[in-house]
């Protein structure tokens, strides 16, 4: 049994309260240290600003930071709780950190991300010089040579960020089988799991990125979102996530599903950090012509970070979403989400907002899976082929969806292990053609239904954003419209863990203490507004700080341990 004192220390660590000079006694708890390092940020929670303060004062360097984060990854990725959040770490991150340290010493600071380690989803291209694969979690892409950094990576590096690692995900961003394969599983990285419950579903598809941000394996992360892949894992991991408007962020160099719906978004512990990341990745890119139609100039997404941003604002609650199952995975349990959400409404009102009902009356048409999946299927066939053609070398030799299906079937030991055989969505994609008149018709219809439905709910009720418990992201994704989710609450401890499907590695969803968020959804290019609302709510409530990951999933290494 742990001594009283150790128990107190453990509790203090869990709560993020650090206490001095702990004697761990004879027990071997070297891997469980939690020592007071005054002035050093706790990497579990540290913000960009806190990390930067220590870099500026010379308390530590970016090299120290990279060493500390790598040690934290090592503690939990394949050891301890085996979270499998990271597929590959960067062999050049330390050298990059040293370069950025030298620049800082010389008085050059590239931007607010200078010398800060960020982890990105493994479907985002990194240049060959960085020595990492871009696999989307599939052996069909292991060893490919990309043409260079994805546009979003260039954006991060321009601000001085260090790309620390590539994060695990749901394979092919959950476009292989979303009903028969579990979220967070890839053949290359295995099953990643939620740090809030052993073998909890991380949700996806950007699950690895969210795990990394949730427990401080990096300062923050990037995910990609087609039908909810940033909002879901951000919500499930007690984080802030932004799904930007289609056309705001370039998809150049991102393994695609659908050009009509794919986007890349920030996953961070605070609204401020998410806004800083969005600043780094937003903007036009000639190689992705969807981004050429965006309003100019690109806003500074940190400009509206004001605690009184909700004063005089009208917000709408689409109550009829209850019929569409706004928290589908937990509907069978007595979740208490409704009560927490009603409290959030009261909090928003106390901050000066007026909250009214604003039903999205055609929600069932928006969420009609037949149409959405048809667009995803058709686009995937075309967009995958175009992506593969950009690569300088593909060892598997795949050129299109048919080759990919054949590769998987020819390598069942790699791609189709027991209980992970399905590739039904690939087969669905293989049967589509963008020359089918139904393709253009469905895109036009869904754009009208999606944008029209959300804009009507906003305009008819004179509200600037819709609010509801996260995750319920698909309806915004269908419209190509933005969402931001911010931590709100946790399922009660008595929630019964429910097994997800039947797989070799079992995951659970829901589970006790599963985090959930509050979403703000708006019209196209309303990110700056949504971010300001989320900030005001976050600053008034700080729900993220109410609960930490389970003990084993909290990495113990801090910066002084590597200095
Ligand atoms: C530092 O700045 C000086 C003067 O601008 C330059 O000559 C030198 O190469 C710089 N050193 C590094 C490491 O960037
Ligand atoms: C890519 O993955 C393979 C297999 O895991 C590994 O051998 C290789 O070092 C990785 N990196 C690169 C740049 O190919
Ligand atoms: C982008 O370019 C393609 C090919 O030139 C064209 O078909 C498409 O309409 C353009 N899309 C936008 C949004 O400009
Ligand atoms: C909105 O939806 C809720 C829940 O379905 C329903 O009770 C309410 O009457 C609807 N409001 C309007 C104006 O239709
Ligand atoms: C979904 O859309 C398809 C194709 O437009 C249509 O045939 C089907 O009836 C719709 N389903 C529902 C439940 O509305
Ligand atoms: C088309 O779909 C059918 C039924 O799912 C499947 O048997 C067939 O293999 C698919 N075609 C291709 C080219 O994959
Ligand atoms: C809409 O709401 C704003 C306050 O956010 C108010 O000033 C304005 O008068 C309202 N417009 C209508 C048409 O009700
Ligand atoms: C789970 O899958 C395994 C392997 O396919 C199978 O042997 C077992 O019967 C399944 N169990 C349930 C409860 O479906
Ligand atoms: C960085 C890291 O730990 N990567 C691991 C991810 O998971 C695969 C599969 O277990 C390992 O082979 C990698 O080493």
TrEMBL record:
<dbReference type="InterPro" id="IPR023631">
    <property type="entry name" value="Amidase_dom"/>
</dbReference>
<keyword id="KW-0732">Signal</keyword>
<feature type="domain" description="Amidase">
    <location>
        <begin position="64"/>
        <end position="530"/>
    </location>
</feature>
<protein>
    <submittedName>
        <fullName>Amidase signature enzyme</fullName>
    </submittedName>
</protein>
<feature type="signal peptide">
    <location>
        <begin position="1"/>
        <end position="20"/>
    </location>
</feature>
<dbReference type="Pfam" id="PF01425">
    <property type="entry name" value="Amidase"/>
</dbReference>
<dbReference type="InterPro" id="IPR036928">
    <property type="entry name" value="AS_sf"/>
</dbReference>
């Amino acid at each position: 049994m742990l001594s009283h004192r150790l128990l107190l220390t453990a509790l203090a660590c869990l709560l993020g309260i650090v206490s001095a000079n702990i004697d761990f006694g004879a027990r071997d708890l070297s891997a469980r240290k939690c020592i007071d390092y005054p002035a050093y940020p706790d990497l579990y929670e540290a913000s960009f600003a806190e990390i930067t303060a220590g870099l500026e004062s010379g308390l530590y360097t970016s090299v120290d930071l990279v060493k500390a984060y790598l040690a934290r990854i090592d503690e939990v990725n394949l050891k301890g709780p085996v979270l499998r959040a990271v597929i590959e770490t960067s062999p050049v991150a330390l050298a990059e950190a040293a370069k950025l340290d030298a620049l800082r010493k010389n008085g050059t600071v590239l931007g607010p991300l200078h010398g800060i380690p960020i982890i990105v989803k493994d479907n985002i291209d990194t240049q060959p010089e960085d020595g990492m694969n871009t696999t989307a979690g599939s052996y069909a892409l292991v060893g490919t040579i990309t043409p260079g950094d994805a546009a979003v990576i260039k954006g991060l590096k321009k601000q001085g960020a260090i790309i620390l690692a590539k994060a695990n995900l749901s394979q092919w961003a959950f476009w292989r089988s979303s009903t028969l394969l579990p979220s967070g599983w890839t053949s290359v990285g295995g099953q990643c799991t939620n740090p809030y419950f052993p073998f909890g579903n991380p949700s996806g598809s950007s699950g690895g990125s969210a795990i990394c941000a949730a427990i401080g394996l990096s300062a923050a992360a990037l995910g990609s979102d087609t039908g909810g892949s940033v909002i879901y894992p951000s919500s499930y991991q007690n984080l802030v996530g932004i799904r930007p408007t289609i056309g705001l962020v370039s998809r150049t160099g991102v393994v695609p599903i659908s050009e009509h719906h794919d986007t890349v978004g920030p996953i961070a512990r605070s609204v401020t950090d998410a806004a800083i990341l969005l600043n780094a990745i937003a903007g036009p890119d000639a190689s992705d012509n969807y981004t050429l139609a965006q309003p100019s100039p690109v806003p500074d997404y940190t400009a509206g970070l004001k605690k009184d941003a909700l004063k005089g604002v009208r917000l709408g609650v689409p109550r009829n979403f209850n019929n569409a199952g706004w928290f589908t995975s937990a509907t069978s349990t007595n979740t208490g989400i409704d009560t927490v959400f009603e409290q959030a409404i009261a909090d928003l009102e106390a901050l000066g907002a007026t909250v009214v009902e604003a039903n999205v009356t055609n929600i069932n048409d928006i969420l009609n899976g037949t149409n959405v999946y048809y667009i995803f299927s058709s686009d995937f066939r075309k967009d995958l082929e175009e992506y593969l053609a950009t690569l300088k070398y593909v060892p598997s030799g795949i050129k299109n969806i048919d080759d990919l299906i054949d590769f998987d079937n020819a390598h069942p030991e790699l791609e189709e292990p027991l209980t992970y055989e399905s590739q039904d969505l690939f087969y669905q994609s293989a049967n589509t053609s963008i020359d089918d008149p139904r393709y253009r018709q469905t895109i036009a219809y869904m754009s009208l239904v999606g944008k029209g439905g959300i804009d009507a709910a906003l305009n008819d009720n004179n509200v600037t954003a819709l609010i509801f418990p996260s995750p319920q992201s698909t309806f915004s994704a269908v419209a190509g419209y933005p969402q931001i989710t911010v931590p709100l609450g946790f399922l009660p401890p008595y929630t019964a863990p429910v097994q997800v499907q039947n797989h070799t590695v079992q995951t659970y969803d829901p589970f006790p203490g599963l985090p959930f968020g509050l979403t703000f959804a708006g019209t196209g290019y309303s990110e700056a507004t949504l971010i300001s609302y989320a900030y005001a709510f976050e600053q008034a409530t700080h729900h993220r700080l109410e609960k930490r990951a389970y003990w084993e999933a909290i990495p113990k290494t801090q910066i002084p341990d590597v200095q």
